[in-house]
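Standup notes
- DV: blocked on the single-chain target, sequence here:
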Amino acid sequence: MKTYIYIFTGILLLLITICPILYHIENKVFNPLQSQELRKIFLSYEKIKKRCSIDNIKLSSHGELFEIYLFNTQKAILDINYPNYANEWEKEKITSETIISKWKKCPLDTTAYKLFKFAFTTNNYNQSECLKSFSTELSEPNNFYSYIYFNDLEYYFLLYCTHKEELYYIRVKL
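- DV (later): unblocked, structure below
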């Protein structure tokens, strides 16, 4: 009987040790914007690399869960006809119910603010050194934003900072 307890304890300790390591590795490696999505966002680009990301849980009556990513871009070209979401985004089919916005200049319009208010008002950006300027970038008049809203459980927001050549990507996919 003691042998089973030792084996169970050993397996439990191994899982407790390995799970956080695997989560950290997956978080560093995972990139939601693959080449097919990037071709829908920009007319053209030379290089895009994930700089950092954080998961946010905003305590509210809805308990929203979202991720935010920051990408460094090189020679990304915006076009008023983009993003061209076409038929799907992140493998979700676009329907007549989907709310889509092409690139618009900041500051945000009232529709965008209402749809993404919880993400814009969170204080969690101060936890990450590279995301601290997100709130300020939303009001920078030379920046552009776009979004795609499927429903209350799945929606995406993009903010492109022209002067820094950076792309913020907020992703809610529950």
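- Follow-up: The helical segments are 2-29, 35-41, 110-121, 134-137.
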